[in-house]
Amino acid sequence: MLPRATKNAWSQVRRSSSSTSRHLAADMPIVQDSVSPLAALPTGVLLRSIFINAITSRPYLLRPSLWVLSKLSNPGRFMPSIDNNILLRSILKPTFYKQFCAGETRVETQATMKHMKEMGFRGTILTYAKEIVFDHHANSQHGLGVEAAEGKETQWCESIEAWRAGTANTVELLGEGDQLAVKLTGAGSLVTKAFSEGKLPPQQMMDALDEICTKCRGRKARILVDAESQHFQWGIMLVAVHLMSKYNTEGYALIYNTYQAYLKSTPATLAKHLAAATDQKFTLGLKVVRGAYLASDERCLIHDTKQETDDAYNYIAQGALKQQIGEFGAPNGRPFPSVDLLLASHNKESVVAAHHLHQQRLKAKLPTVPVKFAQLQGMSDEVSFGLLQLKGADHAAPEVYKCSTWGTVGECLAYLVRRAMENRDAASRTMEEYMALKAEARRRLRSYF
């Protein structure tokens, strides 16, 4: 638990973070030139985005789409796998799959990643699609492409080996500037059993992780340990901290852990990890997201309102940039450890305020931390391209990444369901994005004629 002084500091800063964020964002608009951010979006992608957002911004169209995706992600006796259903696959792949996923093959995936860099992004954050999602409401776990049955305690696990091989193949796809995101539950039931008990996974999995870390370090690619279902999260964080203490040396974060701002427990968790980074002298890789398991996790674990989640996100982001979170960096508090920051967010206000604060501190020669930004492929393109148009004191754009997933259509279904649910739970943002996309289409039509 947090000390009382830390709790009080958290409460005070959280109350002020929303107004601070709005003030910073107002001082620096997201677009600094007259070119529309979406002007960089290829016409084919623009038209597909309009089609997808026309569905996800309308509840009466999104609900049946979600139902279909959920059924497809759990095939049964009368529901064949999507990879074996030619008709459904021919509908899903060129629409939802292509909007949010990088590709099924090495060639398709690398073509998508090359396209991202051509549009101006620093690189792609790529993840292998296999994962297991625990549904708290149904008290069950599911995921295509993974061995979901309970395994036996053996010296060798085929599911862990399949995860190792698939993740190693993903590393081989990475080029300069790209990063690897890992979903550890994709290694199967022996691993998820350990995670659900808050333990480290079998040694075979730890050996596989050491291999992946070594390969990524050789390619100068960072590793982002994704947040997953809370049923597994405490074990996942145990692995992440272990890897950070081993590999995040000499002020460089090879490994990032993901912190979900919508969880009430996040400030206490972050304080614990800041203490570990201080005591063990490693760099904390701090990736901040709002959270993506609202539909499956226990609701009581999550903030009651969106505003509370926004305040929590801004508190962590701005606190890291100021090098003061709770007692860490506070007067008469503990020293602030070495931190590398990655802000993964679709919220325009949050990312612009963070960029502006970072530039303010650099200009004033005040202490701060390195910061990067990321949005998901197929979502919030106006935010992504708007960030690329912002220039810092050195006239360079901030480092912006697109996060994407690769794997077969069937393997990516659990991911696609979460993306659709995220759009459902952020209806106002999705509608704003839809209107911005249509405005860009109208602009192009006018310029053509």
TrEMBL record:
Domain of life: Eukaryota
Key word Oxidoreductase present: yes
Top EC class of this enzyme: oxidoreductase
Keyword entries, A-Z: FAD, Flavoprotein, Oxidoreductase, Proline metabolism
This protein's record includes keyword Transcription regulation: no
EC number from the UniProt entry: 1.5.5.2
Stored InterPro entries: FAD-linked_oxidoreductase-like, Proline_DH_dom, Proline_oxidase
Domain Proline dehydrogenase intervals: 112-430
Cofactor(s) required, per the database record: FAD
Catalysed reaction equations from the record: L-proline + a quinone = (S)-1-pyrroline-5-carboxylate + a quinol + H(+)
Function according to Swiss-Prot or TrEMBL: Converts proline to delta-1-pyrroline-5-carboxylate.
Family: Belongs to the proline oxidase family.
Name the record gives this protein: Proline dehydrogenase
Originating organism: Neonectria punicea
Lineage, highest ranks first: Eukaryota, Fungi, Dikarya, Ascomycota, Pezizomycotina
Gene (name only): PUT1_3
